[in-house]
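User: Here's a structure from my thesis project, written as structure tokens. My advisor, Dr. K., wants to see whether a designed sequence matches the one we expressed. Can you design one independently, without my sequence as a hint?
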């Protein structure tokens, strides 16, 4: 074995003597490659660990009078994102885009709430809306026609009469609460600072239901969309039941529904009567769906959105669709899968059959707008909500369905029956950031593996003979 003193290490030709000329070249290559790899990782590491939005992005402006928005819109603006939402108590809808790119403006419009029955499925489909005709159809199919031959004529006639006059006898309300026809009260915005977290806070509260939906007056003051636009990253803790991270530049929009009056509860006496006849009819089999439209428009079509905001429907059949007509959306990415939305599957004679969103292990569902580059707009939501009496919150699962509606998507967030309690759910919108391709522990592990491999290669090359790979004869 060679022995060297400290002075030997200082000699210019030490490494030539110790390693030999050929081995020294291999060592130089290995050291040079390792140094380059470490240098590249060091340069990329900050990008991988942080989103594209600055972690401490300050608001640039919140201007209620700037052209072209005047008093129709409120504008949130940072260096990365711009968000418009209606001023003056109009319906809740949001437009957002990259601050330096107006070619794609993403739109989410909250259309309304729909009560539906869940005798068959937990997700919303139009054929299960909790209206007189649909309830009659499902009860006839499942609980009357299969058994009525066993009943006396008087019982059959009584059941037929009650089913034909459900709305009159039991006081059913419309299953659909259209947000565009309601008057909304906007409170805020105000800027809030909590420690290192900074956000803009404002609320949409349903103030008045239209005259042609008198049965839905209970919703006045009881439907709220609580909004927080985050200037800094934050962790949302929902009453200690679950938590998730929110990026800087993300707008959270918590849906809150208090004391919903359920049509399914209004017919409890009918259900009790059928159960007395020996038919196992379940109570409280209903859900509430939040209907949302997702679309994309060009900034030049902002006038369509302005008309949308200013327009007030005059009847239940009179719906606002200006933004949807101007939409240029061709496809959306739902959980990484491309879904075409160019065809209008809702316009056919048959009722729609929304596709299902599959359960996932991550903390939030994501629907992303298709775009030519990697970074587009998105809509997210947590796969569970809470129902609470104010003191005892409980988790409930949230399901979803969606359908192509002709250059835009109809999305239905589906909440199971929550009685007279309060429902809270957490959707949000934003722009894609640079993907977190690696984490610090993963990078350290990879560097360790590379180091081990490098040492192995060095050890092999240290030997005099070549390394042979044996092959079978």
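Assistant: Designed independently from the structure alone:
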């Amino acid at each position: 074995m060679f022995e060297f003193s400290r002075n030997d290490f200082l000699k210019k030709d030490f490494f030539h003597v110790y390693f030999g000329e050929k081995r020294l070249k291999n060592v130089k290559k290995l050291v040079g490659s390792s140094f380059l790899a470490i240098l590249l990782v060091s340069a990329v590491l900050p990008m991988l660990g942080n989103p594209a939005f600055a972690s401490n992005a300050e608001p640039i402006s919140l201007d209620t009078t700037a052209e072209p928005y005047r008093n129709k819109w409120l504008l949130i603006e940072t260096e990365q994102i711009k968000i418009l939402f209606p001023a003056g108590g109009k319906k809740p809808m949001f437009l957002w885009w990259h601050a330096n790119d107006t070619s794609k403006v993403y739109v989410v419009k909250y259309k309304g709430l729909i009560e539906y029955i869940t005798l068959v499925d937990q997700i919303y489909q139009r054929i299960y809306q909790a209206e007189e005709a649909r309830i009659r159809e499902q009860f006839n199919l499942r609980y009357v026609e299969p058994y009525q031959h066993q009943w006396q004529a008087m019982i059959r006639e009584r059941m037929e009469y009650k089913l034909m006059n459900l709305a009159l006898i039991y006081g059913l309300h419309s299953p659909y609460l259209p947000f565009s026809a309601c008057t909304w009260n906007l409170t805020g915005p105000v800027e809030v600072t909590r420690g290192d977290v900074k956000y803009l806070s404002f609320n949409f509260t349903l103030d008045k239901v239209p005259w042609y939906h008198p049965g839905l007056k209970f919703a006045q003051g009881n439907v709220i969309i609580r909004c927080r636009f985050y200037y800094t990253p934050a962790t949302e803790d929902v009453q200690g039941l679950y938590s998730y991270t929110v990026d800087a530049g993300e707008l959270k929009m918590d849906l809150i529904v208090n004391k919903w009056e359920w049509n399914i509860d209004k017919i409890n006496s009918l259900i009790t009567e059928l159960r007395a006849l020996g038919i196992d009819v379940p109570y409280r089999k209903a859900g509430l769906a939040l209907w949302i439209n997702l679309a994309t428009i060009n900034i030049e079509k902002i006038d369509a959105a302005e008309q949308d905001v200013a327009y007030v429907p005059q009847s239940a059949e009179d719906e606002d669709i200006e933004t949807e007509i101007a939409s240029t959306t061709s496809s959306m990415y739902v959980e990484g899968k491309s879904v075409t939305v160019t065809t209008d599957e809702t316009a056919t004679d048959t009722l729609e059959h929304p596709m299902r969103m599959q359960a996932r292990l991550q903390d939030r569902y994501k629907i992303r707008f298709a775009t030519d580059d990697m970074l587009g707009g998105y809509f997210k939501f947590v796969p569970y909500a809470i129902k609470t009496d104010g003191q005892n919150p409980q988790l409930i699962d949230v399901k979803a369905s969606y359908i192509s509606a002709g250059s835009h998507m109809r999305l239905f967030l589906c909440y199971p029956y929550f009685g007279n309690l309060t429902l809270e759910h957490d959707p949000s919108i934003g722009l894609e950031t640079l993907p977190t391709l690696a984490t610090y522990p993963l990078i350290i592990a990879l560097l360790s593996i590379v180091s081990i491999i490098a040492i192995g290669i060095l050890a092999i090359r240290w030997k005099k003979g070549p390394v042979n790979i044996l092959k079978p004869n």
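When you compare it with your expressed construct, this may help: The chain has two domains: 6-50+438-462, 73-431.
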